[in-house]
Amino acid sequence: MKVVATNTGEKRTVSWGFKKVTTGIFKFPTSEGIFLGIEDVVGDSVVDRKYHGGIDKACYAYSADQYSFWNPQFPDLEWDHGMFGENLTIKGLNEKELYIGDTFKVGDAVIQVSEPRQPCFKLNVRFNSKRMVKAFTKHGYCGSYFRVLEQGNIKPGDTLELIEAGEPRISVFEVFQLIYSKGNKELREIAKTHSKLAETTKAAL
Questions:
Q1: Backbone phi, psi, residue 68, to 5°
Q2: Using CA atoms, how far apart are residues 56 and 76, in angstroms rounded to an integer?
Q3: How many angstroms separate the CA atoms of 195 and 193, rounded?
Q4: Is the omega angle on the peptide bond into residue 168 within 30 degrees of 0, that is, cis?
């Protein structure tokens, strides 16, 4: 896997329906890279810390490979990396092959897969579409949050080197499916007892 873009955003207030919404989801590429702190990306805007930032949501990554799926569905938008509110746009990221607890060296940092992204209505705001959250959930390729085990700089072109595989083996994709379904009791129990899965996600299972 390779980082193709590092993205940050500033707090922005926009009109959505009949109300004003303040959000940090509008992120754009930064050529100089980013610095991953223990609880967030330095210089990035985190508006609602109940759902963003913190130990288990310090950094959000989304697959560059999924852009080709979404771009034709929203041709009128101005497309750039960071569209999904991700700090890292990564080529080769596949949620079906990315496992909870997988630990990577990337740039100067060490990061660990902590949980899938559960989309909120602000994804609708970013795409100016009331159907985006539902479509994103149905598609299933949700991206991944990482906790930061060692702080450091990451820049475009850096590669992710797996240094420890998460155990037991349950993928980000599988956990995301469990959140929105009632099936697979055995897999659900594995997820609920996984030491590296974020507690907020366990509570949603």
A1: -70, -25
A2: 34
A3: 6
A4: yes
